[in-house]
Structures are given as structure tokens and as C-alpha cells.
Amino acid sequence: MEELLRQAGEKVLWTARRKGVEAEAYLLYNRELSVDVNRGKVETLKEAEEIGLGVRVFNQGRLGFVYSSDLSAQAVAQSVQDAIDISQNTPLDLYNQLPEPVNSYPTLDIYDPQICVTPLENKIELAREAERVARAFDPRIAVVERAGYEEADFNTLIMNSKGLLASAQGNYSTLFISLVAQDEEDSQTGFAVMSKKKFAELDPAALGQEAAHRALRSLGATTSATANLPCIMEPFVTARFLSLLAPSLQGDAVLKGKSMLKDRLGDKIAATAVTLVDDGVLPGGIAAFPFDGEGMPCQRTGLIQDGCLKAFLYDNYSAMKADQVSTGNGQRSSFRSLPSVGITNLVLSPGLKDPADLRIDIKTGILITEVMGMHTANPISGDFSLGASGIMIREGELAEPVRGITIAGNIFTWLKNVQAVGSDLRFYGARAAPSIRMEGISVGGQ
Fold first, then answer.
1. Which fold is adopted by the domain 2-214?
2. Which of 34, 137, 164, 257 could make an SS bond with 160 (beta carbons 3.0 to 4.6 A apart)?
3. Per-residue pLDDT tens for 59-117?
4. Three-state secondary structure string covering the chain
């Protein structure tokens, strides 16, 4: 497969050279498998693969971009010509330049052959096991809506006219389950997901138990009174708030004036307990890769250290415009897209406290276990008003479940109000976070 990708890339550069322009070839082969089971029987089984090419042409500061799933020599040459034609009608921007080649890339363990050689039936059995464990956990588990297994396997190759060459293969696998617990007239949903770079690390029993526990603990939930309460957020919720914060840490947003953190480098923007990193080379990280979507080496970038803003994330274009160096964060969703600034593995560093110790001195507070409507939050101002559910805290102990509540605030105020960080770091895709305790948060209820 790599040889096929390389031949297409070389054709791009050869054609571009003949046409008197610089070019970049981004080539991707991707294979995906997904299986859903219900009551032990396979409901859906899908396997798909695609291969494609993205061509960026740099024509004296003018950019042209074309993609194609046809890697024949004729189609590749035509893609280059089409990109040149497009570039003649795009704005002149002297920051449109190819990345320079690099001497080396980090060596990462990102490909597990076991994912590919394990028989399909064994993978289906993992989903069945998660479902069995969940159903057996408690008779109140009424419905398992979905239990499934997914995997992705991908080859990426990038070449450009300046001599850059980057190639790597990676894969990962995922288990997930969603279910419903029912008790008399009340029903509550539960879910769990687990993504691993190593197939052997998938744990269907733990997954099924977690989903069942999440549903059962919410049975009998009522709403709460409106109040300003001390708050603990579970890792899943904390990780979702990281998604709201991430755009403000991207160099392109800073350059466009769309980040509240503009001109704040070196400032104290969060509580001392907050340390946040973007780690593109994190061992076991789902988004770990030797290079980004432009061929720049991925790295570990400290964004917030002990509450102080230390850095922003850059791709090649935004780095040049800001007179900075690329942090290896030029992300691409596929060969069909241009690179843009994005996170790799965004990790809120854990603290030393056991999660139970975070609440030990709270007289009346709330543990937030789920939030809804994160897409309605404002990524520029950081304002949010979200539906939520959770469990009341009384005299340091978990008490009655609550739902139908609203939590409101601002992500930048939220950062300053973090009092403590738990030791229970959890990974949810490319984001990882522990539990956190905050000062009073506005909770809307009855």
C-alpha cells in the first residue's frame, strides 16, 4: 500500500515541477470496521475502505487545492493541473508556503498488528461480552440499545516539493455500549466507550459494568432547587468542557481575534491546580502520530502550566503569520480537507486526590455526571448554559440523583474557580481529564 501511495505522490511532484509550481501530496488509505450486536446477534456489520489524494499547489503565494480518489497517473496529473487553475483565482497570501523538510520524526508505537489478525468472530464476542455483563449486572437493566466494536486502520504519506517525506501507519479499536435501566415508572440511560491503541487492552466486562452503573445511579432522579453550589465534575464532563476551551488555544483563532486569550501569554488564567497539555506523542494516545497533516513532527506542547498560559497551537500557516514555529497541529479530517489548526491528545493533568476526597468537606453540593447541549456554548466568549444531570452531595456523601437542571457560567471563570483536581484521569477519544472540584456554580432547577 505504501508503494502505491508513494508512486502517486511522486507523480504529483513531477507534474508540479514541470508546470513550474510547488506542490504537496497528501495521501491516505483508510479501512474501517464496525459491528453492532443485540441480544448476542449481529445486527449490523460494515467494513469500508477508501484511498485518496489531496493536492495543494503553491503558485507564487496563491493556493489551489484539489482532491481525488483516483490515483491513476492520468488522474493525478489532472488533479495537479486543476489545482493550478484554481490557484490563479485565489487571493495572494505570502504566508501560503510549503513546510520545510525535517531531519527526523518521533518513534511511536501506534500500530498494533493484533487488531488486523484477530478473527472477526473474536471482535464480535467482545461486544457480546459487554452486553452480557451489562444485562447481568442488575435486573433493572431493561434494554441494551447498542453494543458494538469498531476499528480503524490507516496509512498516511505526505510529500512536498521542498523534499519533505513523511509516512506512517496507525490503528486503534473501540468498544461501546448504550443501555436503559428501568424501575417502576422511571427509566434512565447509561453509556460507556473505550478506545485503545492496543487490542488486548479492551475490557468488555468493565465497559458493561460502567454503563449499567451510570444508568442505575440515576434512577429516581428529581430536579433540584435553584442555587449556587460547590460542584464536582466527573472526568467525562470535564473532558467535554475541554472541547469548549480548545478553540481559544489555537493560534489561528488568536490571529483572527476570536480568542479571549489573545495577548494573555504568561498571564495567570486559571487556578494553580490546572495544567493542560496537547500531546501528539502521548504513549497510548488515540491521536498520537509522528507527524501532522502537513508533515510537521508532532510534539508535546504545554498550554497551561500551574494556571499560567504558556503557549498556543499552530499549523505551518498560522505559525508563519504569528512569527512562531509550527507545533505540529495542522490537522486534517481526510484527504478531502485542507490542514487547519486542531488538537491532538488534549490532557488535563491529574492531581493527587482520590475522587471521593474531593467532596469530603462539602456540606451541600452537586456531582455533575452529564451535560447536554454543549454545541450551544459560545467558543469565543466561553459562555455556556447547559442541561445537566447529577447527584447531590450532602455532608460529604453522594445522596439523591437529580436531572432536568441547568448549569450556567463561563469557561474562563470556570478555570479560575477550580479548587482541586482528582487522580482519576480518564480518556475519551483524544481528550483526557480527571474529576475536578470547583467553587460555586449556578445550578437552575425548580
1. PmbA/TldD fold (3.30.2290)
2. 164
3. 999 999 999 999 999 999 999 999 999 999 999 999 999 999 999 999 999 999 999 99
4. CHHHHHHHHHHHHHHHHHHCCEEEEEEEEEEEEEEEEECCEEEEEEEEEEEEEEEEEEECCEEEEEEECCCCHHHHHHHHHHHHHHHCCCCCCCCCCCCCCCCCCCCCCCCCHHHHHCCHHHHHHHHHHHHHHHHHHCCCEEEEEEEEEEEEEEEEEEEECCCCEEEEEEEEEEEEEEEEEEECCEEEEEEEEEEECCHHHCCHHHHHHHHHHHHHCCCCCECCCCEEEEEEECHHHHHHHHHHHHHHHEHHHHHCCCCCCCCCCCCECCCCCCCEEEECCCCCCCCCCCECCCCCECCEEEEEECCEECCCECCHHHHHHCCCCCCCCEECCCCCCCCEECCCCEEECCCCECHHHHCCCCCEEEEEEEEECHHHCCCCCCEEEEEEEEEEEECCEEEEEEEEEEEEEEHHHHHHCEEEEECCCEEECCEEECCEEEEEEEEECC
